[in-house]
Amino acid sequence: MVSGKLRVGVARTALLEDGRTFFDPQALGILDSAPGLEWEYLPDQPKRLAADHCARYDVICAVSEGIGAEALGRPDLRLRLLAGFGAGYDTRDVGALTAAGVLLTNNPNAVRRPMATTQLTFVLALAHKLPTKDRLVREGRWGEQRSHYGTGLVGRTLGSLGIGNIGRELFRIARPLDMRFIAHDPFVKQEDVAGLGVTLVDFDTLFRESDFLVTNVLLNDATRGIVGERALGLMKPTAYLVSAARGPVVQEAALHRALAEKRIAGAAMDVFEVEPTPVDNPILKLDNVIVSPHALCHTDECNRSLAEGSFRSAAAFAGRARPDHLVNPQALSHPRQAGWLG
After folding, report:
1. Per the residue annotation, which of 112, 184, 294, 312 is the catalytic one?
2. What does the alpha-carbon distance between residue 226 and residue 234 come to, in Å, rounded to a whole number?
3. Which is catalytic among the residues 53, 113, 168, 246?
4. Contact at 8 Å (CB) between 47 and 24?
5. In angstroms, what CA-CA distances link 137 with 105, 129, 133, 134?
6. Structural domains present in the chain
7. Main-chain phi, psi angles of 22, to 5 degrees
8. How far is CA 94 from CA 30, 69, 97, 192, 198, in A?
9. Rounded CA gap, 115 and 3, in Å?
10. Residue 295 has what DSSP assignment?
11. Which pLDDT does position 2 carry in this prediction?
């Protein structure tokens, strides 16, 4: 057990180039006012946390930093809580954290509405061919407007691969559009989503019948590359794909072929297999794809919620209370956690 105040490290990726935080700095008041802790920014900006970080802090508030077993095996390990800003944790080795007695929290509610509105923004932009019509004006091609009619949404099918926190929110905010809703998720029962007007279907039916198909799954061994040649081949030539979960869920080479050969109508991508995606990525040369840098959901509201969720986890832990949104509650029974939480 750690005596005295808990030492909290906040990821330096929370800072912009001019030293300001990317979120409303009032969120830091959660840490400033919490008894039992002292905090500072990490001394560097690693992509993955190292053993030195884990020996220096009891709690780390991580923005995007990954962590693996190599950082957790030293005898001077001090870390007992990794409090993530976002919902995803695919870069964090949950098994290694649990084995080392380190709690992991995520922050699903902070991104639920912003990610759902991101996905709906893409659906609307694709349906109305917004990028094409933007180019018509900028390039003096006003007279071509009648050659680029959009797709009406009433009666069209909106599909989601996965229907968790964000997927359900997408269907909630899309209800006024009078679309048909379908989803595939082997971990969800029909009665769980019936109130949203969503019909659960099998994987192939989802891809065959969706006019707009959104990815809403976590990245793991089962979902990596799940949207590949075969799945894309099931889609209608008039259908659109929205990739907004994790980039490696979609096989980019297969998607490029489907888009280039006009086997699907178009796509929107907020995430890529490699980030930042190279500027010579062939997908970026296509005119039937909309792209954004894994940041379309980032608004002032979202960013503040991301920070507040992480800082509340740290403050709760310092106050000997169980933090919300524990990813690995099994770690609570580890000897390193014994006697700390009330």
Report:
1. 294
2. 13
3. 246
4. no
5. 47, 13, 7, 6
6. 6-109+299-337 (3.40.50.720), 111-291 (3.40.50.720)
7. -75, -5
8. 26, 9, 5, 27, 31
9. 40
10. -
11. 43
The alpha-helical segments, DSSP class H, found in 162-299 are 165-174, 190-193, 203-209, 229-234, 252-260
- Rg of the chain on CA atoms, in Å: 22
53 given a catalytic annotation: no
**Catalytic site includes residue 128:** no
Active-site residue, 12 included: no
Phi/psi at 230 (nearest 5 deg)? -65, -50
What tokens does 217 get? Answer: 């799954």
Q: Where are the alpha helices (DSSP H) in 158-264?
A: 165-174, 190-193, 203-209, 229-234, 252-260
- Asked if residue 127 lies in contact with residue 150, where contact means CB atoms within 8 angstroms, the answer is yes
Write the CA distances from 108 to 131, 133, 140, 189, 218, integer angstroms: 30, 35, 44, 21, 12
Report how far residue 184's alpha carbon sits from residue 180's, in angstroms, rounded to the nearest whole number: 14
SS3 call for 33: coil
Peptide bond into 323 cis (omega under 30): no
Q: What are phi and psi of 77, to 5 degrees?
A: -55, 125
The whole-number pLDDT of residue 61 equals 98
What is the pLDDT at residue 43?
A: 96
Q: Of the residues 40, 70, 144, 275, which is catalytic?
A: 275
Averaged pLDDT in 10-residue chunks for the chain of 342 residues:
79 97 97 97 97 98 97 97 95 97 96 96 97 94 92 98 97 98 97 96 98 96 97 98 97 98 98 97 97 95 97 97 97 94 78
